[in-house]
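Tokens in:
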């Protein structure tokens, strides 16, 4: 009996020892698996960190490349504008040479004096200018501002407004701001001056947005600098809002036309001789360049490099082919015409007198001359104003 109990105790003890050994092995295995899982988790975390690092590097590289691509786009536009400017000057030189060849056929082995060549070039310029002068009886230049009339205050601080100078038109056009794709049309000046005039105005939707304040309305069409382009001028029919024509103005787009109105890259104007484009050319020290355009086809008829600076200029206008540049201070003050350029060379800017505008508000963002009214429609810090100008014969200027 005793032996049985001893044997039973031995069996139970062996079973307990075996169970304890199995438990110890299982714990060892669990610890091993835990370590392996921890190592795998560490590797996965390191992989995630590496992927995030690579993604950040790829993003930085793509951002860097996009910056370079943007810079290349700007450089491409600048080069295109520069090439267009060179092409324009080559074409101008070719026209002058062609005219000289027509007037004086080439003779072999004959030396031509430089003074003779210079005179022939001047003669070619005079021929072109005389053609413009023959289009209309136009022999006057502004000599001063007679009066100032403040019509109203409407729209933003910068903008432009004007009347169509074509015969029989009394409509008023209102462009508020420096970038938009719409403008307002009023039936006449009286409708424009009403207190709630915008309610009765016609909103004209354009196919392309405009930028700056250099728009022009002429014979039922609006001419403007297309927003987002370097030097594209667009012609749109106002009545139906359809695109009519466009052109790239050679040499324009690299500088604002007026340093005090930096949003205006191209300024379009109308006078007795027709449609003009004004821009600043860095190749000539930032001086203004005026280009005569055909209002129907937008073809360039002729271009003149002036002595008038764009620095400290705020606006300009033309009367009978004479450019009048209006200057001011950056802080705002009394505007004055300090530079005049006559395409017919009747007088030169150093000889022309300086005259002042009546002191009012701060500065002008645009001035639109109306050949029939002999008035300037100006935008003065949100105020729509009219200047009545006095004129005199150009020969009176030349004789003084």
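Residues out:
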């Amino acid at each position: 009996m005793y032996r049985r109990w001893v044997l039973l105790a031995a069996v139970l003890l062996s079973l307990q020892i075996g169970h304890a050994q199995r438990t110890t092995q299982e714990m060892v295995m669990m610890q091993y698996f835990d370590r392996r899982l921890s190592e795998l988790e560490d590797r996965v975390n390191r992989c995630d960190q590496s992927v995030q690092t690579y993604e950040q590097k790829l993003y930085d590289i793509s951002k860097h490349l996009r910056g370079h691509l943007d810079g290349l786009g700007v450089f491409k536009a600048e080069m295109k504008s520069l090439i267009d400017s060179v092409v324009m000057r080559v074409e101008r030189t070719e026209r002058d040479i062609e005219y000289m060849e027509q007037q004086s056929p080439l003779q072999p082995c004959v030396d031509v004096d430089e003074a003779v060549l210079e005179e022939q070039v001047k003669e070619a310029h005079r021929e072109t200018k005389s053609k413009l002068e023959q289009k209309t009886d136009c022999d006057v230049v502004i000599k001063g501002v007679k009066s100032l009339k403040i019509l109203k205050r409407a729209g933003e601080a910068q903008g432009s407004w004007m009347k169509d100078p074509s015969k029989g038109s009394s409509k008023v056009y209102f462009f508020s701001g420096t970038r938009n794709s719409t403008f307002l049309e009023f039936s006449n000046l009286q409708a424009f001056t009403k207190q709630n005039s915008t309610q009765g105005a016609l909103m004209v939707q354009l196919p392309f947005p405009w930028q700056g304040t250099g728009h022009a309305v002429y014979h039922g069409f609006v001419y403007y600098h297309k927003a987002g382009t370097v030097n594209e001028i667009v012609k749109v029919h106002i009545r139906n809002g359809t695109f009519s024509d466009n052109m790239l103005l050679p040499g324009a787009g690299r500088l604002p036309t007026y340093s005090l109105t930096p949003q205006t890259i191209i300024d379009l104007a109308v006078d007795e001789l027709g449609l003009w484009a004004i821009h600043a050319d860095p190749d000539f020290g930032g001086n203004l360049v005026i280009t005569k355009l055909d209002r129907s086809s937008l073809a360039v008829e002729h271009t003149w490099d002036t002595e008038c600076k764009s620095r400290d200029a705020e606006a300009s206008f033309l009367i009978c082919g004479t450019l009048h540049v209006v200057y001011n201070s950056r802080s705002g003050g009394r505007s004055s015409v300090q530079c005049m350029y006559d395409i017919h060379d009747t007088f030169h800017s150093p000889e022309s007198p300086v005259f002042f505008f009546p002191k009012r508000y701060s500065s002008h963002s645009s001035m639109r001359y109306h050949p029939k009214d002999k008035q300037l429609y100006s935008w003065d810090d949100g105020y729509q104003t009219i200047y009545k100008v006095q004129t005199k014969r150009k020969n009176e200027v030349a004789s003084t």
